[in-house]
């Protein structure tokens, strides 16, 4: 029997960024759960069934390769498939040897460069996917971070290099949100949008809890989507790594529950609208799984056999405008896009299935 894991919180934000602009006011945002005025129908094509995965945390595409990041992997974290749905290899072994990791960490995908990147204490590790598939022995590179970084935060969740070699770090668990490192200069960006109405600490906690993230291919913009409630926050990154807000779109108000014996921690509760469950991007659009069900439905008696995953793909542009929503008829757990013509997804059914969807067809 499959277990439903609601990916617990950590994913939030820190980006190592040069602060050039901070919003002058931080008024509470308004919410509108009808940003999509219509929903089309796009049938999904089943490419493969019975995928040997435990829980698909995220997905990516590179050339003709589809990768699925398995949150509960027992051996390899990323099984790889071709566009026909055929398994071709596995990568990122669970372990303590060279190129192995012990625990799941959120991977940052650099599609245009064919790189899977993640943060390991003190360094960025990059996997060259195509080099790995060609049996190259030099498919892994490690980039140590300057010691000054550790003076800015108690815990970093992830990190990625830009094409220019500067760093963007994503961080959880303390007040820092986005930070830039340029040589030995480390600058911190701390501004969160006012989504809770209860102060920065609660705003940060909401973004920390299982939020989804996507970076535009040219690193000019980054988007965050909250799991608790549905808030889409888009930021602009300029050529010198200055940062400025683009759009904060409130869809579902973040209703949360405090964690017993841990006053700073929050989680979802019965009345929490479940927001973004997956996110990927092209240079034009953000492709998301935006749910909207209430937390109590995750605990319903039939939730294990009939979980309330969304069956819709919700598409936004990089200015935060709703572009299109389409119904697939499948319960979707993971999502990735290849350009703007094809999406691939994992469906929750008797046997995990790999799907192909053409949302604009």
What do these coordinates show?
By secondary structure, the protein is mainly β. 4% of the residues lie in helices and 43% in strands. It has helices at residues 129-133, 200-208, and strands at residues 18-19, 40-41, 45-49, 56-62, 65-70, 76-82, 87-93, 108-110, 115-120, 123-128, 140-144, 156-161, 167-171, 178-182, 185-189, 212-215, 221-225, 230-237, 242-252, 257-259, 262-267, 276-281, 285-290, 312-317, 322-327, 332-338, 342-347, 353-357. It has a 5-stranded mixed beta sheet with strand order 1-19-18-17-16, with no helix packed on it. The longest helix is centred in the middle third of the chain and has 9 residues, at 200-208. It is globular and about 50 Å long. Mean pLDDT is 84; it is low at 1-24.
Name the strands of the widest sheet in spatial order: 1-19-18-17-16
Query: In sequence order, what are the helices and strands, one letter per element?
Result: EEEEEEEEEEHEEEEEHEEEEEEEEEEEEE
**Residue windows where pLDDT falls under 50 for at least 5 positions:** 1-24
Overall pLDDT level: 84
The end-to-end distance, rounded to whole angstroms, is: 35 Å
Shape: globular
Number of H- or I-type helical stretches: 2
Q: Structural class per helix/strand content?
A: mainly beta
Rg is 19 Å
Question: What is the subunit organization of this protein?
Answer: single chain
Largest sheet: 5 strands, mixed
Strand content: 35-45%
Amount of helix? under 10%
Number of strands: 28
